[in-house]
Amino acid sequence: MRPMLATPGDTVPVGEDWQHEVKWDGMRVLVQVDGDRVRVTSRTERDVTVAFPELARRSSGLPGHDDLLLDGEVVVLTNGAPSFAGIAERFNVTKPADAERLAATAPVTLMAFDLLRVSGHETLTQPLRVRRQLLEATDLASPSVHVPAVFDDGQLLLSATAEQQLEGIVSKRLSSPYRPGTRSPDWRKIVHRRTSSYVVGGWRPETDRAGVLGSLLIGTPSEGGLRYVGRIGSGLAGASGATLLPRLQALEAPTSPFDTRLPAADARGAHWLRPELVVDIEYHTVTSDGRLRQPSWRGARSDLTPEDL
């Protein structure tokens, strides 16, 4: 099953049929308990259980349950605030030993915000109001699982998340059923800076430092290749760039994957790539010619492929 998704919005909906939640800076997952087995799947239905041993262990994850399906986000909290870089590193892990090491140094918390099945009963057709009541009545006491609060005043929550430098809010219609795999207007996300996923089509080294990542050339999939949206350098210094560079080098290709010739200033010294790696980029707005304004790197999305965009 793929999770229900929120539609981007600019204004906070008001009225008694809406509840409002913090938008967590994490990775979306569904967590299923079936007998003694816990399974964690990504937004694209990829099994990522190995990456999160603290959730898979019954003692620390979801003890006391043998039939449960939760929707939520896994987050890594640093000084009480979610760290997207931290969760991106966790999501990329495929080896159990690496996962256990990271679970000890950068443990995740599942922010469980919806209950889709419990004790043999599916709740998908129930309104959110009922699902939320069931979620709050289900004992999820665990060091790795938290049911975040919901709020009546969305505008106040939006202001509070801005002050605390959080990503934004999600507003949900209380009368709405759960629609798997659907981006629905019954859920609306409002963010302080926009974040979208793009495909990397090339990279450039730093000036006079050929072995150091300086910037990425990114685009969106189109019929003729990638449609160029800009060059991203902010956020790639230090460990982020050093960790990413080997992944880029493994994708190098002889020709550009973009559907048009890039500006000479952007293409100079570029290493072209097979368009396979999806990344998240934060930005302010999009210009009239489709370029991102004030873009910055947020992290690689190993849970997504270009076909998902």
TrEMBL record:
Q: Which UniProt keywords apply?
A: Ligase
Q: Name one GO biological process term.
A: DNA recombination
Keyword Repressor carried by entry? no
Q: Name one GO molecular function term.
A: ATP binding
Its EC number is 6.5.1.1
The record ties this protein, via Pfam families, to:
DNA_ligase_A_C, DNA_ligase_A_M
Q: What class of enzyme is it?
A: ligase
InterPro entries attached to this UniProt entry: ATP-dep_DNA_ligase (IPR050191), DNA_ligase_ATP-dep_C (IPR012309), DNA_ligase_ATP-dep_cent (IPR012310), DNA_ligase_ATP-dep_CS (IPR016059), LigD_ligase_dom (IPR014146), NA-bd_OB-fold (IPR012340)
Q: Which PROSITE patterns match?
A: DNA_LIGASE_A1, DNA_LIGASE_A3
How far does the signal peptide extend, from start to end residue?
none
Domain ATP-dependent DNA ligase family profile as annotated: residue spans:
105-222
Catalyses which reaction?
Answer: ATP + (deoxyribonucleotide)n-3'-hydroxyl + 5'-phospho-(deoxyribonucleotide)m = (deoxyribonucleotide)n+m + AMP + diphosphate
Family designation = Belongs to the ATP-dependent DNA ligase family.
What name appears for this protein in its UniProt entry?
Answer: DNA ligase (ATP)
* Protein's organism: Branchiibius hedensis
From the broadest rank down, the organism's phylogenetic lineage runs: Bacteria, Bacillati, Actinomycetota, Actinomycetes, Micrococcales
